[in-house]
Amino acid sequence: MKKYLVLLLLCCLQGLYAQVEFTATPSKTKLGLNERLRVEFTMTADGDNFNPPPFDGFNAAGPSQMISNSWVNNKRSFSKTYTYVLTPTARGTFTVGQASIEVDGKTYKTIPFKVTVTAAVDKPNDPLAAATENAGKGIHVVAEVSNYNPYVNEPITVVYKLYVSQDSSVRGTRQMDIPQFNDFWSQDINASGNTIKQGTYNGESYRYIELKKVVLYPQKSGKLEIEPLSMELTIDVPTGRRDFFNRPLMTQTQKVMSSGSKYITVKPLPEQGKPADFSGAVGDFTFKVTPSKTTLSDGESLQLTVEVSGKGNLKLFSLPKPVVPAALEMYDPEHNEDISIPLSGMQGSISDVYAIIPQNKGKYPIKEMAFSYFDLSEKRYKTITSEELIIDVLSVSNTTADATVTPQGAQKQAVQTTAQFRFVALNTTLQPKNKQHFFRSVLFYILLLMPFVLIPIIMLLKKKKQARDNDVTGNKIRKNNRLAKKYLSEAKKHLGNKEPFYVSLEKALHNFLKAKLSIETSEMTKPNIQELLLSRGAQQETVTDFITIMNNCEFARYAPSSGAAMQQDYDHAVGVITKLEKEI
Predict the structure, then answer these.
(1) Which residues cross the membrane (predicted)?
(2) CATH 2.60.40.10 region(s) of the chain?
């Protein structure tokens, strides 16, 4: 008895080991933009019709194929591997989908996996790049940072350059990744583009072009990363052969190069001596408050301009707001900017213009205003205070605010004290356009009798709907009929596209059977289908044609198929369904 159990166990184990395995194995699932990965699709049985997945987000090279076949202890061990080398084209998380293979008429698929592509790394761990390592000699992508230890909101400049030695040649460039300056306010500056300049790098003479220039204002203190710029370069590489004139023959290869991440240490603004009204201004500024006039009469208004000018982070702080007496009505300001941003940072002026309208005559003060900023040259805070202004209102007209327009176009209208209210007109003189009486007219009687006619019709329709809703079998049949027509229409749209065409056609056939035979998917075996169709009065020839079409749908997806064959299968399916509709 024990011997039989052992033999049974061995047979089961042999069956397990004989099972076909098809797997996808990546060399890594997280890599930098300037690295590559290898993906191996391995099967334990010899298969056909290998279909790789779409490699979205990557450039794929391959496949290379390797077959291993060995015998150990009278047991055969077989494996077949397709290998792809993937080069990322952008940052992000990408899914490598299912590959498929056909073994002995069965289709096997791999499990999808995700790959995360980060910014380019400083030291790429890329053994696959050994073959092209020499291609990048004498070529450097560099990020030049003007200041590695700035204050918060102090401008720094980053210039990305491509240096090429005299002995190297670059045929083309393509920017692969745009740096993300997450902890900075940034402004791109127009680079010189393809203008070739002469310069030095590591003490040697190089040609270079400027790839990108940007001005950065750090927004927080601490160690901050300046992300790298990654470029795909087309580089000339010697083949080791020479032409008839003994000149070296060259070939071209693509290589991804990166400037590498740069790190700066940002100092916080000092707490000692920081004014209470400090709003974040850093640079060198002047401050002034200017009224358009200080003496007003006959309903005049004035404009008060609060302006800061100079060099610094002009877009990154707010201006102080004036405080005026209640007798002066002040509107929201119109904000103006006149700023240029060269490589050295922002410079120019910003201003808020307030419209002020007096409500009563008299003399009213506008208190002095203070503006504080951090001076980078002296490393200390400074405060500029404006003078107090006196607005002398000689007279106020009754119509002062009737149509006073602010810089934004808002209007202020005063309510006259002599005419605050008016009587509402109560008497009307409305007259109907059509003087014919509606009462006892033809339309009157039609509308009167219409509900009595509609009520029985509505009740009859409701009863029919309720009966239809209760007809579960009939509803299933109608639903399957609709689905059959829908999928048949989809199949027609996919003519020429093999897999979706046959999937839609197969679904149309299944739903047709569900509608006509009242069976479920689990009951759709070919002998059962044949028996049920014949019992419903279908001809043997028609049933055979129907089974043939079902077989075509199952196998055609995995075999080569032309557009003419798909059109023939579609026409055949429509003809057979039409015949069965008449015969059943």
Answers:
(1) 442-461
(2) 20-118
